[in-house]
Amino acid sequence: MLKKSIEEAINNQINAEFWSGYLYLSMSMHFEAAGRPGVANWFKIQFQEELAHAQIFMNYVNQRGGRVVLRPIAEVPTEWKNEADAFEATLAHEQKVTALINDLFALAEKEHDYATREKLNWFVSEQVEEEETARQLLDTYRLIGENGNGLYQLDRELASRTFNTPSPLAAE
Predict the structure, then answer these.
(1) Which pLDDT band holds residue 166 (cuts at 50, 70, 90)?
(2) Residue 155 belongs to what domain range?
(3) Does 168 reside within a domain?
């Protein structure tokens, strides 16, 4: 059984994961409209990953006898100057999510909830990967600048990204 403090914190994290998904869907739609289908695809896959993260948390709360309470999702931005601007926002957002996961991990330790701490280990590693990917893409866009050929090539590369079910869901 989950302690109420853990249940509440995970419900907050579920909302944050849905907000993240909504942000990335907004980015996807922005770049789709801007004629950047590869960038749009990358963000659409990011959207799917965030929904999967929320599902992992929801499954965990239910598995531990808690109750998932879905709350309204706050408004997200809808405009970005260019790809570099969007990936700057992505990196900043992923750093914020990392802080949320770290806070949740610290709460699990404080509450001596070792099962939750164990579940969060995957998310801690996932956030390292998320930040690294956002940083690499941001660096690439800064390097390319406004070079049309470079932007075209990277857009084509990003179009090949596919969704892979996160391992905690694949095991369920």
Answers:
(1) confident
(2) 4-162
(3) no
